[in-house]
Amino acid sequence: CTYLFVIFVAAVDIYAAVAKSLAERKKGNQLTEFLRNIKGTIDDSDWD
After folding, report:
1. Of 5, 13, 22, 45, which is least packed with CB atoms within 10 Å of its CB?
2. Which pLDDT value is given to residue 35?
3. Coil vs helix vs strand at 34
4. What region, left, alpha or beta, does residue 26 occupy, with left being phi > 0 and alpha being psi -120 to 50 degrees?
5. So what's the pLDDT on residue 31?
6. Is there a contact between 19 and 34 (Cβ–Cβ < 8 Å)?
7. Within 10 Å of residue 11's Cβ, how many Cβ atoms?
8. So what's the pLDDT on residue 1?
9. Predicted model pTM
10. 38 and 18 in contact (C-beta within 8 Å)?
11. What is the reported pLDDT for 24?
């Protein structure tokens, strides 16, 4: 279970870095598409 948590945290860090980069470069359309794509990979109960 701890191993899966570490993978999840690493994925969140990667997602956050990509989203930050797209936002900083004012790539709004790409950011929107990126967020749509990752939303399907995260369980609804994990969204805060």
Report:
1. 45
2. 87
3. helix
4. left
5. 92
6. yes
7. 13
8. 62
9. 0.64
10. no
11. 94
**Could you tell me the two tokens for 11?**
């994925």
Amino acid letter, 30? Q
Give me the amino acid identity at 25: R
Express each pLDDT in 6-40 by its tens digit.
Answer: 777 888 889 899 999 999 999 999 999 998 888 77
Domain boundaries, the chain: 2-41
Instruction: Locate 25 and state its tokens.
Output: 């470069």
Q: How far apart, in Å, are the Cα atoms of 45 and each of 15, 22, 31?
A: 18, 26, 22
Tokens of 23: 């936002």
Amino acid found at 9: V
Q: In the chain, how long is the greatest CA-to-CA distance? A: 37
Query: Among 7, 9, 5, which Cα is nearest to 17's?
Result: 9
Tell me if residue 31 falls in helix, strand or coil.
Answer: helix
